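testing teh design pipeline on a random one, pls ignore if ur not involved
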Protein backbone atom coordinates (compact mmCIF):
# COMPACT_ATOMS: atom_id res chain seq x y z
CA UNK A 1 0.00 0.00 0.00
CA UNK A 2 3.10 2.22 0.08
CA UNK A 3 2.09 4.47 -2.82
CA UNK A 4 -1.64 4.63 -2.10
CA UNK A 5 -3.46 7.87 -1.44
CA UNK A 6 -3.98 6.67 2.11
CA UNK A 7 -0.28 6.43 2.87
CA UNK A 8 -0.14 9.99 4.22
CA UNK A 9 -1.57 8.71 7.52
CA UNK A 10 1.80 7.09 8.16
CA UNK A 11 3.28 10.57 8.63
CA UNK A 12 1.18 11.02 11.78
CA UNK A 13 3.37 8.44 13.51
CA UNK A 14 5.84 10.22 15.77
CA UNK A 15 9.40 9.07 16.23
CA UNK A 16 10.03 8.02 19.80
CA UNK A 17 13.66 6.93 20.08
CA UNK A 18 15.44 6.89 23.42
CA UNK A 19 18.49 9.13 23.64
CA UNK A 20 21.61 7.42 22.36
CA UNK A 21 24.16 5.96 24.80
CA UNK A 22 21.98 6.16 27.90
CA UNK A 23 21.17 3.30 30.23
CA UNK A 24 17.47 2.69 30.41
CA UNK A 25 15.18 0.83 32.74
CA UNK A 26 11.86 -0.68 31.77
CA UNK A 27 9.67 -1.25 34.81
CA UNK A 28 6.54 -3.33 34.58
CA UNK A 29 3.87 -3.55 37.28
CA UNK A 30 0.83 -5.78 37.64
CA UNK A 31 -2.52 -4.07 37.11
CA UNK A 32 -4.82 -4.42 40.08
CA UNK A 33 -2.80 -7.18 41.74
CA UNK A 34 -4.27 -6.32 45.11
CA UNK A 35 -7.51 -7.81 43.81
CA UNK A 36 -5.83 -10.45 41.65
CA UNK A 37 -3.87 -11.76 44.64
CA UNK A 38 -7.11 -12.08 46.61
CA UNK A 39 -8.89 -13.80 43.75
CA UNK A 40 -6.19 -16.48 43.62
CA UNK A 41 -5.77 -16.63 47.35
CA UNK A 42 -2.09 -15.57 47.51
CA UNK A 43 -0.50 -16.27 50.90
CA UNK A 44 -0.17 -13.04 52.87
CA UNK A 45 2.06 -11.15 53.26
CA UNK A 46 4.22 -13.02 50.73
CA UNK A 47 3.19 -15.81 48.39
CA UNK A 48 6.35 -17.70 47.41
CA UNK A 49 4.68 -19.27 44.36
CA UNK A 50 3.70 -15.85 43.01
CA UNK A 51 7.18 -14.40 43.58
CA UNK A 52 8.83 -17.41 41.96
CA UNK A 53 6.50 -17.11 38.99
CA UNK A 54 7.49 -13.42 38.62
CA UNK A 55 11.17 -14.46 38.74
CA UNK A 56 10.69 -17.15 36.11
CA UNK A 57 8.83 -14.77 33.79
CA UNK A 58 11.65 -12.22 34.26
CA UNK A 59 14.24 -14.88 33.42
CA UNK A 60 12.33 -15.58 30.22
CA UNK A 61 12.51 -11.86 29.34
CA UNK A 62 16.22 -11.49 30.13
CA UNK A 63 17.26 -14.75 28.51
CA UNK A 64 14.84 -14.69 25.57
CA UNK A 65 15.82 -14.20 21.96
CA UNK A 66 13.57 -11.11 21.73
CA UNK A 67 15.95 -8.99 23.84
CA UNK A 68 19.10 -10.55 22.43
CA UNK A 69 21.06 -10.26 25.69
CA UNK A 70 20.66 -6.47 25.85
CA UNK A 71 19.09 -6.49 29.33
CA UNK A 72 21.84 -7.21 31.81
CA UNK A 73 20.12 -7.13 35.17
CA UNK A 74 16.57 -7.16 36.45
CA UNK A 75 15.16 -6.52 39.91
CA UNK A 76 11.80 -7.72 41.17
CA UNK A 77 9.51 -7.28 44.16
CA UNK A 78 5.79 -7.85 44.66
CA UNK A 79 4.06 -7.46 41.26
CA UNK A 80 6.81 -5.39 39.64
CA UNK A 81 10.04 -5.98 37.76
CA UNK A 82 12.68 -3.53 36.54
CA UNK A 83 14.78 -4.45 33.51
CA UNK A 84 18.07 -2.58 33.09
CA UNK A 85 19.49 -2.28 29.57
CA UNK A 86 22.98 -1.62 28.29
CA UNK A 87 23.91 1.84 27.07
CA UNK A 88 24.84 0.34 23.73
CA UNK A 89 21.47 -1.35 23.16
CA UNK A 90 20.35 -0.71 19.58
CA UNK A 91 17.35 -3.01 19.56
CA UNK A 92 14.45 -1.74 17.41
CA UNK A 93 16.35 1.50 16.78
CA UNK A 94 15.81 2.26 20.51
CA UNK A 95 12.17 3.10 19.79
CA UNK A 96 10.65 3.37 23.24
CA UNK A 97 7.17 2.13 22.35
CA UNK A 98 8.62 -0.97 20.67
CA UNK A 99 10.89 -1.73 23.62
CA UNK A 100 8.31 -1.20 26.36
CA UNK A 101 5.58 -3.15 24.61
CA UNK A 102 7.96 -5.99 23.82
CA UNK A 103 9.06 -6.35 27.45
CA UNK A 104 5.50 -6.13 28.76
CA UNK A 105 4.30 -8.61 26.18
CA UNK A 106 7.06 -11.19 26.66
CA UNK A 107 6.75 -10.92 30.44
CA UNK A 108 2.96 -11.25 30.42
CA UNK A 109 2.99 -14.13 27.95
CA UNK A 110 5.57 -15.99 30.05
CA UNK A 111 3.65 -15.27 33.27
CA UNK A 112 0.47 -16.71 31.78
CA UNK A 113 2.22 -19.69 30.19
CA UNK A 114 3.93 -20.58 33.48
CA UNK A 115 0.90 -19.89 35.69
CA UNK A 116 -0.43 -23.51 35.78
CA UNK A 117 2.92 -24.75 37.11
CA UNK A 118 2.60 -22.52 40.17
CA UNK A 119 -1.17 -22.36 40.62
CA UNK A 120 -2.43 -25.67 39.23
CA UNK A 121 -5.65 -25.48 41.25
CA UNK A 122 -6.52 -21.88 40.48
CA UNK A 123 -7.01 -21.48 36.72
CA UNK A 124 -6.97 -18.05 35.12
CA UNK A 125 -10.22 -16.63 33.81
CA UNK A 126 -10.64 -14.44 30.73
CA UNK A 127 -12.36 -11.80 32.86
CA UNK A 128 -9.47 -11.46 35.30
CA UNK A 129 -6.26 -11.98 33.35
CA UNK A 130 -2.96 -10.95 34.91
CA UNK A 131 -1.89 -7.89 32.92
CA UNK A 132 1.03 -5.50 33.33
CA UNK A 133 1.76 -1.93 32.40
CA UNK A 134 5.23 -0.65 31.57
CA UNK A 135 7.31 2.50 31.40
CA UNK A 136 10.83 3.38 30.38
CA UNK A 137 13.21 5.73 32.15
CA UNK A 138 16.67 6.74 30.91
CA UNK A 139 19.73 7.26 33.11
CA UNK A 140 23.08 8.74 32.20
CA UNK A 141 25.43 7.25 34.78
CA UNK A 142 26.22 4.00 36.59
CA UNK A 143 25.67 5.87 39.85
CA UNK A 144 22.08 6.60 38.87
CA UNK A 145 21.47 2.96 37.92
CA UNK A 146 22.85 1.81 41.26
CA UNK A 147 20.67 4.36 43.04
CA UNK A 148 17.67 3.25 40.99
CA UNK A 149 18.15 -0.33 42.17
CA UNK A 150 18.71 0.84 45.75
CA UNK A 151 15.51 2.89 45.52
CA UNK A 152 13.49 -0.17 44.50
CA UNK A 153 15.16 -2.29 47.18
CA UNK A 154 14.44 0.23 49.92
CA UNK A 155 10.84 0.23 48.70
CA UNK A 156 10.80 -3.57 48.99
CA UNK A 157 11.99 -3.34 52.58
CA UNK A 158 9.53 -0.62 53.61
CA UNK A 159 6.57 -2.41 52.02
CA UNK A 160 7.56 -5.80 53.36
CA UNK A 161 8.04 -4.60 56.92
CA UNK A 162 4.67 -2.89 56.79
CA UNK A 163 2.92 -5.89 55.20
CA UNK A 164 4.55 -8.40 57.57
CA UNK A 165 3.43 -6.42 60.60
CA UNK A 166 -0.01 -5.74 59.14
CA UNK A 167 -0.69 -9.42 58.45
CA UNK A 168 0.71 -10.51 61.83
CA UNK A 169 -1.83 -8.19 63.46
CA UNK A 170 -4.64 -9.58 61.29
CA UNK A 171 -3.78 -13.28 61.07
CA UNK A 172 -2.18 -13.80 64.49
CA UNK A 173 -3.50 -10.84 66.45
CA UNK A 174 -7.14 -11.14 65.40
CA UNK A 175 -7.42 -7.48 64.30
CA UNK A 176 -9.60 -6.46 61.41
CA UNK A 177 -7.72 -5.02 58.43
CA UNK A 178 -8.98 -1.57 59.41
CA UNK A 179 -7.82 -1.94 63.01
CA UNK A 180 -4.39 -3.15 61.86
CA UNK A 181 -4.08 -0.15 59.56
CA UNK A 182 -4.97 2.24 62.39
CA UNK A 183 -2.57 0.57 64.80
CA UNK A 184 0.30 0.91 62.32
CA UNK A 185 -0.35 4.47 61.23
CA UNK A 186 2.48 6.75 62.29
CA UNK A 187 4.77 3.93 63.45
CA UNK A 188 8.43 3.90 62.42
CA UNK A 189 10.47 0.87 61.33
CA UNK A 190 11.93 0.10 64.75
CA UNK A 191 8.47 0.12 66.33
CA UNK A 192 7.17 -2.35 63.76
CA UNK A 193 10.18 -4.63 64.28
CA UNK A 194 9.66 -4.46 68.04
CA UNK A 195 5.94 -5.18 67.67
CA UNK A 196 6.71 -8.22 65.50
CA UNK A 197 9.30 -9.56 67.92
CA UNK A 198 7.65 -8.95 71.28
CA UNK A 199 4.04 -9.71 70.31
CA UNK A 200 4.43 -12.37 67.63
CA UNK A 201 7.92 -13.84 68.14
CA UNK A 202 8.95 -12.85 64.61
CA UNK A 203 12.56 -11.76 64.13
CA UNK A 204 12.23 -9.63 61.01
CA UNK A 205 15.89 -10.00 60.07
CA UNK A 206 15.61 -13.77 59.76
CA UNK A 207 12.72 -13.72 57.27
CA UNK A 208 13.40 -15.01 53.75
CA UNK A 209 15.77 -12.52 52.04
CA UNK A 210 13.59 -12.72 48.92
CA UNK A 211 10.80 -11.08 50.94
CA UNK A 212 13.02 -8.44 52.57
CA UNK A 213 15.31 -7.58 49.66
CA UNK A 214 13.58 -8.63 46.47
CA UNK A 215 15.00 -10.77 43.67
CA UNK A 216 17.64 -10.09 41.07
CA UNK A 217 18.15 -11.71 37.69
CA UNK A 218 21.62 -11.38 36.22
CA UNK A 219 22.61 -12.02 32.63
CA UNK A 220 25.81 -14.02 32.68
CA UNK A 221 27.86 -14.76 29.62
CA UNK A 222 29.83 -17.95 29.55
CA UNK A 223 33.49 -17.08 30.17
CA UNK A 224 35.23 -16.52 26.85
CA UNK A 225 37.40 -19.47 25.85
CA UNK A 226 41.08 -18.91 25.13
CA UNK A 227 40.72 -19.55 21.40
CA UNK A 228 37.96 -16.92 21.06
CA UNK A 229 39.10 -13.50 19.96
CA UNK A 230 39.45 -10.86 22.66
CA UNK A 231 36.77 -8.67 21.12
CA UNK A 232 34.11 -11.37 20.93
CA UNK A 233 30.78 -10.31 22.41
CA UNK A 234 31.16 -12.20 25.67
CA UNK A 235 34.44 -10.60 26.62
CA UNK A 236 33.36 -7.24 27.95
CA UNK A 237 30.01 -8.06 29.46
CA UNK A 238 29.03 -6.88 32.92
CA UNK A 239 29.29 -8.87 36.09
CA UNK A 240 27.20 -8.09 39.12
CA UNK A 241 29.18 -7.93 42.31
CA UNK A 242 27.40 -8.45 45.59
CA UNK A 243 28.00 -5.99 48.37
CA UNK A 244 29.45 -7.12 51.69
CA UNK A 245 26.11 -7.41 53.44
CA UNK A 246 24.28 -9.43 50.82
CA UNK A 247 24.66 -12.96 49.50
CA UNK A 248 26.35 -13.53 46.16
CA UNK A 249 24.12 -14.57 43.30
CA UNK A 250 24.33 -18.31 42.78
CA UNK A 251 24.93 -19.34 39.21
CA UNK A 252 22.32 -21.92 38.37
CA UNK A 253 23.53 -23.13 35.05
CA UNK A 254 26.72 -23.47 33.08
CA UNK A 255 24.89 -23.21 29.77
CA UNK A 256 25.79 -20.26 27.64
CA UNK A 257 24.26 -16.97 28.74
CA UNK A 258 21.63 -18.02 31.23
CA UNK A 259 19.80 -15.54 33.41
CA UNK A 260 19.88 -16.44 37.08
CA UNK A 261 17.54 -15.33 39.83
CA UNK A 262 18.92 -14.66 43.26
CA UNK A 263 18.22 -12.69 46.38
CA UNK A 264 18.84 -9.09 45.61
CA UNK A 265 22.09 -7.62 46.71
CA UNK A 266 22.57 -3.89 46.97
CA UNK A 267 25.22 -4.60 44.42
CA UNK A 268 27.62 -2.24 42.74
CA UNK A 269 26.78 -3.06 39.16
CA UNK A 270 29.54 -2.70 36.60
CA UNK A 271 28.50 -1.90 33.06
P1 LIG B 1 -1.94 -0.93 40.38
O1 LIG B 1 -2.79 -1.43 39.27
O2 LIG B 1 -2.06 0.54 40.59
O3 LIG B 1 -0.50 -1.35 40.28
P2 LIG B 1 -2.14 -2.93 42.46
O4 LIG B 1 -3.37 -3.47 43.14
O5 LIG B 1 -1.43 -3.86 41.54
O6 LIG B 1 -2.56 -1.59 41.72
P3 LIG B 1 0.41 -2.44 43.77
O7 LIG B 1 0.81 -1.22 44.50
O8 LIG B 1 1.11 -2.71 42.48
O9 LIG B 1 -1.18 -2.40 43.58
O10 LIG B 1 0.62 -3.63 44.77
C1 LIG B 1 0.54 -4.96 44.37
C2 LIG B 1 -0.28 -5.75 45.37
O11 LIG B 1 -0.38 -7.11 44.92
C3 LIG B 1 0.34 -5.84 46.76
O12 LIG B 1 -0.06 -4.79 47.57
C4 LIG B 1 -0.17 -7.17 47.26
O13 LIG B 1 -1.49 -6.99 47.79
C5 LIG B 1 -0.35 -7.99 46.00
N1 LIG B 1 0.76 -8.96 45.76
C6 LIG B 1 1.64 -8.94 44.72
N2 LIG B 1 2.50 -9.96 44.80
C7 LIG B 1 2.20 -10.65 45.92
C8 LIG B 1 2.74 -11.82 46.54
N3 LIG B 1 3.80 -12.46 46.03
N4 LIG B 1 2.17 -12.26 47.69
C9 LIG B 1 1.10 -11.61 48.21
N5 LIG B 1 0.54 -10.51 47.67
C10 LIG B 1 1.07 -10.02 46.54
P1 LIG C 1 8.20 -8.08 12.78
O1 LIG C 1 8.71 -8.66 14.05
O2 LIG C 1 9.11 -7.07 12.21
O3 LIG C 1 6.78 -7.56 12.90
P2 LIG C 1 7.00 -10.29 11.34
O4 LIG C 1 7.62 -11.56 10.89
O5 LIG C 1 6.00 -10.36 12.46
O6 LIG C 1 8.19 -9.29 11.72
P3 LIG C 1 5.05 -8.71 9.85
O7 LIG C 1 5.34 -7.68 8.81
O8 LIG C 1 4.45 -8.25 11.13
O9 LIG C 1 6.36 -9.61 10.05
O10 LIG C 1 4.09 -9.73 9.14
C1 LIG C 1 3.47 -10.76 9.82
C2 LIG C 1 3.65 -12.05 9.05
O11 LIG C 1 3.04 -13.10 9.80
C3 LIG C 1 2.93 -12.08 7.69
O12 LIG C 1 3.76 -11.64 6.69
C4 LIG C 1 2.59 -13.55 7.54
O13 LIG C 1 3.70 -14.25 7.02
C5 LIG C 1 2.42 -14.03 8.97
N1 LIG C 1 1.01 -14.13 9.38
C6 LIG C 1 0.41 -13.38 10.30
N2 LIG C 1 -0.87 -13.72 10.44
C7 LIG C 1 -1.08 -14.72 9.58
C8 LIG C 1 -2.23 -15.52 9.26
N3 LIG C 1 -3.40 -15.33 9.87
N4 LIG C 1 -2.10 -16.47 8.32
C9 LIG C 1 -0.93 -16.66 7.71
N5 LIG C 1 0.19 -15.97 7.96
C10 LIG C 1 0.12 -14.99 8.89
MG1 LIG D 1 0.89 0.50 38.79
MG1 LIG E 1 0.40 -3.32 40.63
MG1 LIG F 1 3.30 -2.97 42.42
MG1 LIG G 1 5.02 -8.64 13.11
MG1 LIG H 1 2.60 -7.20 11.09
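output:
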Amino acid sequence: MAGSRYAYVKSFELADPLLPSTFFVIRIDGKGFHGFSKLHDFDKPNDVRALTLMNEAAKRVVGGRELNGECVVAFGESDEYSFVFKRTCKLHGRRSSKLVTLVVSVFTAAYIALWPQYFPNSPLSLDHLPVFDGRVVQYTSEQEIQDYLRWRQVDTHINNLYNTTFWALVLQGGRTEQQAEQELSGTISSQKQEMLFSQYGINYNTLDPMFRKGSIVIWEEEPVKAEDSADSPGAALPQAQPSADAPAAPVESSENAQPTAADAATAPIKM
